[in-house]
């Protein structure tokens, strides 16, 4: 069955080929009567295509590609410049920061020193004042003591005169009494 | 049962006039082939000219496609011929795009394959070889013919070498045109034949025909994929060989 249908197919093809051959006399690609027309239209269309491509399309696409390459390299340049600038700025910032820190330290040290000096000075002043007051107080105490001692002596000699008078009935002279008191005081 | 154009694998290559035009006894009618040539130019122009009309730094889809094709062909040209090969860039680009678009549009069912006609591929091949000859002779003068004289060959062998080089040079346009023509013609015939088998088997009354009909259909599908590959590959091969031959005109001498 298969061979039968295949045979009919081949027969049909052969018949078509002979019919075709009878009608057209040749295989279309080798039919020279169409050559002139094909070449004519090929020359026109290919000429137009060549003109369109070489004058319009290719320069334009080439320009687009070149422009893009330029843009990309320019942008990259700009980006690297920007980066360099940013790095520079960062460095400057770091330097300024370090300087400021150093300055701050100096200022803090100076103010600390100044404060210490001021408080030292005030302490010295207060100490001096206090020692002056102490000295004064000591002097006052000494004076008062001397005065008191003198009073005690006077009182002592008067008491001694009174005692002696009471005991002996005879009043010693003031000089004797005072000498005797002095002797007693000197003994301690 | 096999009668009619449905199965005749040659029918698709027929040239049918659309507008008759016969000045001076020459048949210059606007045919289906001419229509396809015009469509080819239109398609390429839409991609390359309309696509690049925005001139966007960040391209859209069509502009990306245009740039991709441009860079693909440009890298091929500079890869084979070096930087100074860019003077032939418009020619190589136009050839590559015309052949590629012609091959691809030929894959549209019911359309016509411009590159399946030898007169078209031969015209391209002679355009290339003509450019090589004219540019080579104008640019390098007699030095261009050093192309046929390989260096480092003993004297007694020289006539043979020159003969071989000359034959190889002359056969270039023939191989260039036949390669493209043969690939496109054979591919389309094979597709049509396998498609025709499916129709013939289904048209038959036997049950067996229905059972094995899917086989040629599968083959036709696979062949279609292969044909798309061939359509691109042949355009690329044509462009590469064009570059190689033009390179001889630019830098003659081995």
UniProtKB/TrEMBL annotation, chain A:
Q: Which GO terms describe its molecular function?
A: proton-transporting ATP synthase activity, rotational mechanism; proton-transporting ATPase activity, rotational mechanism
| Name this protein carries in UniProt | ATP synthase subunit b
One of the Pfam families matching this protein, by short name: ATP-synt_B
Keyword field contains Disulfide bond: no
**Which ranges does the record mark as transmembrane?**
32-52
Query: Secretion signal: which residues?
Result: 1-16
Keyword terms: ATP synthesis, Cell membrane, CF(0), Coiled coil, Hydrogen ion transport, Ion transport, Membrane, Signal, Transmembrane, Transmembrane helix, Transport
The entry sums up its family as follows:
Belongs to the ATPase B chain family.
Q: How does it assemble?
A: F-type ATPases have 2 components, F(1) - the catalytic core - and F(0) - the membrane proton channel. F(1) has five subunits: alpha(3), beta(3), gamma(1), delta(1), epsilon(1). F(0) has three main subunits: a(1), b(2) and c(10-14). The alpha and beta chains form an alternating ring which encloses part of the gamma chain. F(1) is attached to F(0) by a central stalk formed by the gamma and epsilon chains, while a peripheral stalk is formed by the delta and b chains.
Residues annotated as coiled-coil are: 76-110
Q: Does the keyword NADP apply?
A: no
The places in or outside the cell where this protein is found are: Cell inner membrane; Cell membrane
Q: What is its main location?
A: membrane
Please state the gene responsible for encoding this protein: atpF
Q: What does this protein's UniProt record list under function?
A: Component of the F(0) channel, it forms part of the peripheral stalk, linking F(1) to F(0). The b'-subunit is a diverged and duplicated form of b found in plants and photosynthetic bacteria.
Q: Which organism is it from?
A: Bosea lathyri
How does this protein lie in the membrane? Single-pass membrane protein
From TrEMBL, chain B:
Q: How does it sit in the membrane?
A: Multi-pass membrane protein
Q: Which Gene3D superfamilies match?
A: ATP synthase, F0 complex, subunit A
Where is it located? Answer: Cell membrane; Membrane
**Which GO terms of the cellular component aspect does the record hold?**
plasma membrane; proton-transporting ATP synthase complex
SUPFAM superfamilies in the record, alphabetically?
F1F0 ATP synthase subunit A
What top-level branch of life does the organism fall under? Bacteria
The cross-references to PROSITE patterns, in alphabetical order and at most eight, read: ATPASE_A
Supply the alphabetized keyword list: ATP synthesis, Cell membrane, CF(0), Hydrogen ion transport, Ion transport, Membrane, Transmembrane, Transmembrane helix, Transport
Where do the TM regions start and end? 30-50, 88-106, 118-138, 144-168, 189-212, 218-246
Function according to Swiss-Prot or TrEMBL: Key component of the proton channel; it plays a direct role in the translocation of protons across the membrane.
Protein name from the UniProt record = ATP synthase subunit a
Q: Tell me which species this is from.
A: Bosea lathyri
The organism's taxonomy opens as: Bacteria, Pseudomonadati, Pseudomonadota, Alphaproteobacteria, Hyphomicrobiales
Q: Which gene encodes it?
A: atpB
